[in-house]
From TrEMBL:
Biased composition regions of type Low complexity, renumbered to the chain: 16-27
Record lineage: Eukaryota, Viridiplantae, Streptophyta, Embryophyta, Tracheophyta
Region (Disordered): 1-84
Organism per entry: Linum trigynum
A Pfam entry, by short name: Retrotrans_gag
Basic and acidic residues bias spans: 35-48
UniProt-listed InterPro entries: Retrotrans_gag_dom (IPR005162)
Name used for this protein in its record: Retrotransposon gag domain-containing protein
Residue ranges of domain Retrotransposon gag in the record: 162-237
Start-end of Acidic residues biased regions: 1-10, 74-83
Length: 242
C-alpha cells in the first residue's frame, strides 16, 4: 500500500471514529431529554397526588399524629425525591465539561500508549536544543536532526516517543492530537505515521543530470555558482564529497 493510501486510510479511520463519538453523544442527549420529560410528567403527577395525600394526612394527624402508616408514607416520599436527585446527577455528568459548544470528549487525546509512561525521561533532556517542525519542510530532515540530539542522551524507545511531540509546531500538533488514543507503542511506528502525513513536503530527489545541467548565471559570481553547485552535489544521489 502506498504512503498516500495509508494516509487516506488513517484519515478515514479518524473521521469514522469522530462520527461514532458524535453519534454516541447525540444518543446520550436524546436519552437525557426523554428522562427529563418523563421525570417532569411523573413529578407533576406526584405533586398532584402528594397534595391530596398531604391534605388527607393533615386531617389524620389531628386524630393520630404518631401513626406508623403515616411514617411509612413519609419514607416513600423521600425515596421519590431521591430518584429526582439521581436524574440531576446523570444530567450533570452528561453535560459537556468544556463550555458551550464543546463535546463531552473534547479534550486533548494522548496517542501514546500508557506503557510508554512507566519510565521518566532522562533529566538531561532539558539541556538539548531540539529542532522544531512546522509541517512545511522535509520530514526526513527533521527526523535526522532530532535523532542526532537524542543519541546524545542514549534515549530509549519510550523517551523518543514522549519527546518527539515536543518538537511539533501548531500544524503538526493538530495532526498529532487527532490520532486515536494510545495508538503509538513504538517510535518506528510513530515515525512511519509522521513521514506518511507530511510526505508531500519531501524534497524532490535530484539526479546527476541536474548537476550536469547546472550552469553559472550571467550575473552570478564564480564563488556563488560554486556554492550553489556544491549544495546541489550534496543532494544528488550517488555522489559523495571528499
Amino acid at each position: 500500500m502506498s504512503t498516500v493510501e495509508e494516509e487516506m486510510e488513517m484519515e478515514d479511520r479518524v473521521k469514522s471514529q469522530g462520527q461514532q463519538m458524535s453519534s454516541m453523544q447525540e444518543s446520550l442527549a436524546q436519552i437525557l431529554a426523554m428522562l427529563k420529560e418523563k421525570s417532569t410528567s411523573e413529578k407533576e403527577k406526584d405533586l398532584s397526588e402528594s397534595s391530596i395525600r398531604q391534605k388527607t394526612k393533615g386531617r389524620e394527624r389531628e386524630e393520630d399524629p404518631g401513626s406508623p402508616a403515616q411514617r411509612e408514607g413519609e419514607e416513600s416520599e423521600k425515596e421519590e425525591s431521591a430518584e429526582d436527585l439521581s436524574l440531576g446527577f446523570l444530567e450533570e455528568h452528561l453535560r459537556p465539561p468544556y463550555g458551550k459548544g464543546k463535546t463531552h470528549n473534547n479534550k486533548l487525546q494522548n496517542p501514546l500508549a500508557k506503557s510508554l509512561f512507566r519510565t521518566q525521561v532522562p533529566p538531561n533532556f532539558s539541556s538539548l536544543r531540539l529542532p522544531t517542525y512546522d509541517g512545511t519542510s522535509d520530514p526526513t530532515d527533521h527526523l535526522s536532526a532530532f535523532m542526532l540530539k537524542m543519541k546524545l542522551i542514549n534515549a530509549s524507545n519510550a523517551d523518543l516517543c514522549k519527546v518527539f511531540p515536543v518538537t511539533f509546531g501548531s500544524q503538526c500538533r493538530t495532526w498529532y492530537t487527532s490520532l486515536p488514543e494510545g495508538i503509538i507503542e513504538k517510535f518506528k511506528q510513530f515515525t512511519t505515521l509522521f513521514s506518511s502525513k507530511f510526505a508531500s513536503q519531501r524534497r524532490r530527489k535530484l539526479t546527476v543530470s541536474v548537476l550536469i545541467n547546472c550552469k553559472q548565471g550571467e550575473e552570478e559570481t564564480l564563488t556563488s555558482f560554486y556554492d550553489r553547485w556544491n549544495t546541489i552535489a550534496c543532494e544528488v544521489q550517488g555522489t559523495h564529497q571528499a
